[in-house]
Amino acid sequence: MQRNTRAMVAMLFVGLAIFSGLYSTQAMLPTFVEVLGFTPTEAALTVSAATGALALCIVPLSILSERFGRGRLLVISAVLATILAFAVPLVGENVLAIIAVRALQGAVLAGAPAVAMAWLSEELDEDILPRAMGLYIAGNTLGGIAGRLIPTGLLDFTGWRGALLGSAAVSAIFAVLFVIFLPKQENFRPKQLHFKAEIRAMINHWRNLELGLLFLFAFLGMGAFVSMYNFITFRLIHHFGLPVTLTGLVFLMYLAGTWSSARVGTIINKYGHSKTFVVSAVLYALGIVMTLGPLPVLLAGMFIFTAGFFAAHSTASGWVGQAAATNRAEASSMYLLCYYAGSSAVGAASGLVFEATSWTGFIAFISCFTVAVILLGAWLLKSTSRVKEPVAV
Questions:
Q1: What's this protein's family per the entry (predicted)?
Q2: Which of 61, 363, 374, 381 is the most buried (most CB within 10 A)?
Q3: b/e map of 20-45 (b: 16 or more CB within 10 Å)?
Q4: pTM of the prediction?
Q5: SS3 188
Q6: Is a pLDDT exceeding 50 seen at residue 391?
Q7: pLDDT for 180
Q8: Whole-angstrom Cα distance, residue 338 to residue 217?
Q9: With bands split at pLDDT 50, 70 and 90, how would you rate the model's confidence at 333?
Q10: CA distances to 214, 227, 229, 239, 256 from 242, in Å
């Protein structure tokens, strides 16, 4: 197998391995509440702890990769994350122990999003790179779906421990395949570590209005997105009476995000980043409101919500590279830090709201974030209209 092909296959598998592990407990939150006696907030912390630790570690690991190599960090991340995935169901039923292991898992998982795209950019030919990036992102999306569907599919047969062990086994298979296919790194050149300079460059990006607004979107948008998926299964179980194994299928809505993010580039080429972002944000907000309706409307709302979010996220993440005149890697790192920090902080806070109020109150809380995202989009549209936004070609 040619080196470029091996690299693309390897990146598909690392995306599957990493993201199937990151969200492996999300679809099981109602089970943690009903079987283990966790509160909804405690259950949600099994997700927020992982994404929060990932947010804290993504920048330091990105900087360390400049000295010790991307490939080495990717392999270590995949192997350690797989080991910790097996540890989650084996530490007992203590909520603090499970949350602690999930935090460790998130910390080591950070190695993949921190350096995977940099590895591809350094090692692959320019004509191959877009396909390779697409396969990596597809692996992320499909890994997220697998990490949610596999545990819920096993619940009726194995209980919660067996479900998480089964999910860990699948992640382990993906990780082994990644290690087998990953080519040896050839173009990496070690650099001296300059933590202060890297951090200073990231902070300085906040002085750019466009970048600051995009960073805020990453925090607010991902926070609301994860909050909705944390608790939508509770709505399906308690209000509509669906069984846990069936509610896991709601995560197939992620395919709407795969579809929208793959097509948003064509729309950006025609209308520009700002208009595309605003329309995506409106769809994202509309989908949330639709979850107040009957089951068919709720499901349609989740489809629109997911498609809108991933379209906005794809638009924003690409826009960051364009808006950053210098230190683009640091700008991308700040975007990812805000993205996963929002997932952790807002995801945890939404658990308290979910416990304290009705579904309508919860949706009102989440809608505050989506309204803020629309206002950010309007601000971006206004700021870019002053100087005609260059349309991508």
A1: Belongs to the major facilitator superfamily.
A2: 61
A3: bbbbbbbbbbbbbbeebebebbbbbb
A4: 0.84
A5: coil
A6: no
A7: 93
A8: 8
A9: confident
A10: 37, 20, 16, 8, 22
